[in-house]
Amino acid sequence: MKNKHAKNKKLIISRLIKTIFEFYPLMFPIAILCIIFNATISSIPAIFMQNIIALVEQNWQAGDWNAVGEKTLSLVSILVLLYILSLTSGIVYNQMMAIITQGTLKKFRIKMFNKMQTLPIKYVDTNNHGDIMSYYTNDIDTLRQMISQSFPQLLISTITVITVFGIMVYYCLWLTLVVIIGVIIMFFITKKVGGGSAKYFIKQQKALGQLEGFVEEMMNGQKVIKVFCHENEIKADFDKINESLYNDAKAANRYANILGPILNNIGNILYVFVAITGGILLVFDVPNISISGLAMGISIVVPFLNMTKQFVGNINQVSHQINAVVMGIAGAQRIYNLIDEEAEQDNGYVSLVNVCEENGQLIECNKRTGIWAWKHPHSSDGTVTYTKLTGDVRLFNVDFEYEEGKTVLHDISLYAKPGQKVAFVGSTGAGKTTITNLLNRFYDIADGKIRYDGININKIKKSDLRRAIGMVLQDTNLFTGTVMDNIRYGKLDASDEECIKASKLVGADDFISRLPNGYHTILTENGSNLSQGQRQLISIARAAVADPPVMILDEATSSIDTRTEAIVQRGMDALMKDRTVFVIAHRLSTVKNSDVIIVLEQGRIIERGNHEELIAKKGQYYQLYTGAFELE
Ligand code: DCP
Ligand code: MG
Predict the structure, then answer these.
(1) What is the CA(457)–ligand 1 centre distance, in A?
(2) Contacts with 555 (C-beta within 8 Å, 6 or more apart), sequence order
(3) Which ligand gives the minimal distance to the CA of 123?
(4) In 3-state terms, what secondary structure has residue 515?
(5) How far is the CA of 346 from the centre of ligand 1 (A)?
(6) In this predicted model, what pLDDT tens digit does every residue of 246-262 receive, in sequence order?
(7) For residue 434, which ligand has an atom nearest its CA?
(8) What does the H/E/C string look like for 482-504?
(9) Domains along the chain?
(10) What is the value of pTM for the model shown?
């Protein structure tokens, strides 16, 4: 499904230009006009030179130097005036291009980041994080080069080449022919050498992304690396990636560096050839063929030599930009791939609203009442029904697959009435986390139905569904900011008092108050300055402040010390009180306290019942937990 239109290079360039036009509908065209003006003016001095030399030539015998002086002065004045205008336009377009380039990059970054927030969890699960990060660094940088340097330069060169070519043909076809032959040779060499380097430049870009991803992974895994004494292996892996980056970068730059000197020298040789041909034409009095009808003379050969330099110089410039353009296209393609990525669909029309009760009827209220209801508009008869939010969750014959053809869950049916606790147990990979991912629609089910308060969750707006289901994940995730900020993450408009109350409820207040700055202690890098139990307590408080009727708890498997575990357990218990809870339980106490225990095996429910029933059954559950019993 990755966009077909990103395949074609020309299409990407035209799309990029279109995007810039959309971003800067006024400034971009003005900048382009300034560039065109600037380039045209810098390519016409040959005309003035021809005129002045011709003047001198004509008056050589007559010796009327006053007339020559006057005319020359007026020509030079015009030229100076044009140069001043060109200077002005040069300054204007350079300033504008700086704004356009940086502004475009900023807008691309915004687009990418906004898109990332709309992507389904699946995208994050299936893409390399280092790679995604390099969209914001490497790829954006290649775009910067292309927009700020290559685009203007290519435009300038094209215009100069066209204008100079026009003037050449106007003055002398013979000499033009010599230049054309030289340029054709240059073109083939550029294509051969430049084409080779382009391949390596793209490889270099890829290797750079790999290196970035590797370093990121190794930073995150430092402890594991040290625990297993893998430092040497890691170094070897790094050397390998670094080596291939070196090789690709080397190849790319060697090719690119060869090109400049070769083209320069061909340009010099061409210069000599034009001079020789001009000389021959003059000496042998060969009749001139030209649009202007001017006779052959010094006044044509001299400006022609200058034009040859200009012509070759600009073609040289184009070849310099080829690599930047190739890399820019690759970067733009990756950026567009992300921007074009399909956003998470949300066709939900049932929303969560505040209600008040009047005469036993639910009425929508704009103020915060603390009573919530599902607002369900019925398109068939135009009526709206309100269903009180209670936290009743039912699954009917649910099938699910992460990848097509690989069913992970088979025919799952279960229910949790408001306030009930459902515990999932089962061996690793049985599908416990997967079920919870379906409840808040991180993933959509393949078959079956899930109802929340009797409403099919497919009809509920995702943001509202997720607001109605709290989640404490297996791995805690804290953001840079204060403890208070992190707790408030659960409900952005919560007051400090609410946050503290929630912390007290789950027993996190104790340790937070003992932190150097209490609730205003700054957490960095996923709370690395806290213990694991403390991090869990904060994430439990975060869920508590959101106060949803349904809660999903993925108990941390990693063991923490028994004292902290007891505190965390109490926090969890407090959080579970008066809520419908789905808990993936690893602790016997949690399991025992549940109303129903669901035993999963390879994506199927194999047993269900409460603790006593399942023990009496002496089935899978009994086997799973006998070890734990012995410990008790
Ligand atoms: N799976 C997958 N793609 C994912 C996540 C999981 O293909 N993005 C597969 C791996 C397992 C199966 O789905 O075979 C069930 O995975 P769960 O994460 O649901 O397993 P549990 O939560 O039961 O295991 P654990 O106790 O280890 O957390
Ligand atoms: Mg799991």
Answers:
(1) 22
(2) 474, 572, 583, 584, 585, 586, 587, 590
(3) 1
(4) coil
(5) 25
(6) 999 898 888 778 877 88
(7) 1
(8) EHHHHHHCCCCCCCHHHHHHHHH
(9) 104-339 (1.20.1560.10), 351-388 (no CATH), 393-626 (3.40.50.300)
(10) 0.78
